[in-house]
Prior knowledge:
- The chain is mainly α.
- It is built from 25 helices and no strands.
- Among the domains are: 190-291, Serine Threonine Protein Phosphatase 5, Tetratricopeptide repeat; 295-377, Alpha Horseshoe (Serine Threonine Protein Phosphatase 5, Tetratricopeptide repeat); 461-520, Serine Threonine Protein Phosphatase 5, Tetratricopeptide repeat (Alpha Horseshoe), CATH 1.25.40.
- Residues 416-421 have low confidence and may be disordered.
Amino acid sequence: xxxxxxxxxxxxxxxxxxxxxxxxxxxxxxxxxxxxxxxxxxxxxxxxxxxxxxxxxxxxxxxxxxxxxxxxxxxxxxxxxxxxxxxxxxxxxxxxxxxxxxxxxxxxxxxxxxxxxxxxxxxxxxxxxxxxxxxxxxxxxxxxxxxxxxxxxxxxxxxxxxxxxxxxxxxxxxxxxxxxxxxxxxxxxxxxxxxxxxxxxxxxxxxxxxxxxxxxxxxxxxxxxxxxxxxxxxxxxxxxxxxxxxxxxxxxxxxxxxxxxxxxxxxxxxxxxxxxxxxxxxxxxxxxxxxxxxxxxxxxxxxxxxxxxxxxxxxxxxxxxxxxxxxxxxxxxxxxxxxxxxxxxxxxxxxxxxxxxxxxxxxxxxxxxxxxxxxxxxxxxxxxxxxxxxxxxxxxxxxxxxxxxxxxxxxxxxxxxxxxxxxxxxxxxxxxxxxxxxxxxxxxxxxxxxxxxxxxxxxxxxxxxxxxxxxxxxxxxxxxxxxxxxxxxxxxxxxxxxxxxxxxxxxxxxxxxxxxxxxx
Length: 520
C-alpha cells in the first residue's frame, strides 16, 4: 500500500475539516492491516494511528486523540526507527496537549518533559522547536497556577528563540506572551515592561502600524493600563487605531479592527457604559462578518459577550437571542467545541432566570453531551452540571428526577476529597432536603447525619458549617418527637455560633429561641 499517497489524502481531508471522513478512512485502513496477520506493516499502522489522533485532536475529541497517539508511540518505541525523532516528538507533544485539555495535568507535564528531553539531547538542537515546546510547557504551568514555573519557561522560550536567531517579530511575540502572563497575575508593572519591549521589537523590525502583531501588543498594553484605572492611557492607542482606520490612513484588517472594537467595548463596560459597549461589540461582529473566511467561533464569542452586556442591562430576552445566535453559528460550522458547551450552560442559567425550567434542562443536557464527548462521562466538571440539572428539576417540582441526579453525583464523587468545590456533605444535605419535601423523614435524617459526619471529619466540631447542619437535623428531630436528640444538637450548634460569631449573631439568637421554646 502506498503510504505517501494515503497520507496525502488523509491530510487533505483534515485540512478540509472533513474530520469524520478522515477518522473513518484511518480506521478502515487500520482494520485492513490488522487482517493481514503476520504480514502486518507495524510502521504503517503507527503512522495511521498518528494521523488518526490528529483527526480526533482537530475535532476536539481529546480522549480519543490521546489514546491513538499513545498507540502510535508504543509502536514507534518498539520499532526503534532511526530518523523518526521528529515524528515521535510531535506525537508526544500532541499527547501532552490532549492530557492538558483533559485536565490530567501531571500526566501532561510528564509527557511534555519526554518530548523536551528528546529535543534537547539532539546532537543538532532544533532551537525553534525547543522554543515552541517550551512555550507549551509554560502554558501548562500557567493553567495550573504555577506562576514562577510559567515565568521561568516563558523566559527560557525567549532565550531559545534568541539562540535560534529568530527574527525580531517572533522574539517580540514571546515577550508579549510573557507580558500577558504577568497581566493575568496582576503584576502590571512587569506586564507593561514586557509589552513595551514587544512593541519596541516590532517597531525595530519595521512592522507597519496596521500589522496584526503590533496591534495585538497595543491592545494588551491598553488592557494593562485599564487594570491600573488609567482610562485615558488605555484608550489612547485604541482610539488612534479606530481614527486611522476610519480615515483610511491605515489599512487595518477586519479581524484586527474587530479586536480593537472588542477591547474598546471591554473598557466601556468597565466604566459602566453598557450601551456604548454593546454598540462596539456589534461593530466588532460586523467587522468579522465581512471576512470571507468567516470564523464562526470568534463571532460566536462576541455574541456571547454581547449577551453578557444585555444581562447587565437586565434585557434577558436580548441576551437569549445573542446566546442562541452564538450556538447557531457553531452548529452551522459543525463545531462541537467546549465553548459551545459553555454557551448552552450560560443559556440554561438564563432560562432559569426567565422561569423556563424545561428549556434550561434541555440546554444543560446539551452541555453535558458535548463535555462527555470531549472528556468522557466521568469528567469532574460533569458533576457540577448534574447538580445544576438537579436544581432545575427541583424548581420544576420533579423531585424524584432531582433525587436521582443527586444520587448519581454522590456515587461518582471520590471518597474523602473535595472536587470543584463540591463535596459529599453538600450533596448529602441536598438529598436530605429532597427527602424532607417528599415527607420521608427517616431517609432525610439518615442523609443529614451522614452529611454531618462528613463535615465534622473535614472541619472538626465547633465549625459554623457543622453548626448549620446540627441545627437543621435538630429541627427534624424536634418535629419527629426526638426531643433529647434535638436539645443536644441545638446546644452544640449554639456553642459553635457563640464562639465564632458571638451571642448576638442571628444564628445564635435563632437557636437560643428554639432552646427556650423547648424548655417552655
